Amino acid sequence: MITTISFFKYSSNKFWAFTQMSEAHKYFNNNDNVKFYKLLGTGAGNGFLVPDLSTYALLAVWNSKKNAVNFLQESEHSASIRKKAKSRKDFYLKPIQTNGLWDNQNPFKEGIVKHNMNDKIAIITRGKIRLRKQIDFWLNVPKASKAIKNAKGVEFYKGIGELPFLAQATFSIWKNFEAVKSFAYDSKAHSEIIKKTRKRNWYSEDMFTRFIITNVTEKIFNE
Fold first, then answer.
1. pTM of this prediction?
2. Per-residue model confidence (pLDDT) at position 142
3. Residue 9: beta bridge partners?
4. Does the structure show a pLDDT above 90 at 211?
5. 46: number of CA atoms within 13 Å, CB side?
């Protein structure tokens, strides 16, 4: 098994890109090689409050790396992305630690691998926000997002989500495990958000997963 997350960037064809949030399900439903997938929008700036209509993402868990590569490079879906998008970037991931649920399941719990201290670490955090907690949660998002984006050792950060304001996630890449550990234990802002999350019970469902990055590919289609 292997997990991939792909980011597609558009300079034109943005309405087409938006329609793929519903239209692209046809490539994944009843696909025996896909064990779990999500079509995701992204946020601009620090978090998700403002949508980034030029960037969309695909998260998927595959039954093998070979099938993942074949789909991401050779499928009808990849052909349509190649024709419409400006670029794509694919991250190949292996889970090293996971807790929680996503749609009443944990798609990353199989195939947990060991990591070296110098491996780059990718992290996905995901939460389904309770309706009655919306205002309280969103008031705290900018501070939390800024803390991650400005953390020492973070190399990439992007808000991703299935449903605007209701089901949100973040994807971040860290220089190594030491950078992750330093942020988790030494960041005052992060500690405060964790305490608030537990005390105020923002989420009806949440998940936290760490991965090692086994490969990254990037392609430019249209300047």
1. 0.85
2. 58
3. 55, 87
4. yes
5. 14
